[in-house]
Amino acid sequence: MANYRELMDWIGTALDGLGVLVIVVGALMATWRFLFRRQGGTNSYSLYRQGLGRAILLGLEFLVAGDIIRTVVVSPTLDNVVVLGMIVLIRTFLSMALQLEVEGRWPWQRSVEASPATLSREQPDKT
To answer: Could you tell me if residue 104 is inside a domain?
Structure first.
């Protein structure tokens, strides 16, 4: 059982490292695109923010997964579970705020392409 907990601790730490790596590499890639492949105008800044936001969102998912594994498997005390709950709550709020910034809508809202008004216009008239 001790080997299993050590393995899960290692996996959780690896996921944390992967999350940080995803954020750093994503930020560098977004910055590279912004600096060297600029198309001009305010659109390039918007695309930069979207790329940076996507990198942070993906990195946060890995960080949350690492925290969950280490808390639930390695040291499942009530204090650790409460701290995990607070961390997940904060990271969920950050993820939702970033998604609003990147996509311009809340996660539970339909996209403009999939709205009922758009779907009814796309269907051919059956008369």
So the answer is: yes
Residue 82 lies in domain: 2-122
64-91 burial code (b ≥16 CB/10 A, e <16): bbbbebbbeebeeeeeeeeebeeeeeee
Total structural domains in the chain?
1
Closest Cα to residue 24, out of 69, 56, 50?
56
Q: Domain for residue 127, yes or no?
A: no
Q: In terms of Cα–Cα distance, which of 79, 102, 107 is closest to 92?
A: 107
pLDDT tens per residue, range 59-81 = 988 998 998 888 888 777 888 88
Q: What's the token pair of residue 112?
A: 């403009």
What are the structure tokens assigned to 62, written together? 């890995």
Give this prediction's pTM. 0.71
Residue 91 lies in a domain: yes
Q: How many CA atoms lie within 13 A of 96 on its CB side?
A: 9
DSSP 108: T
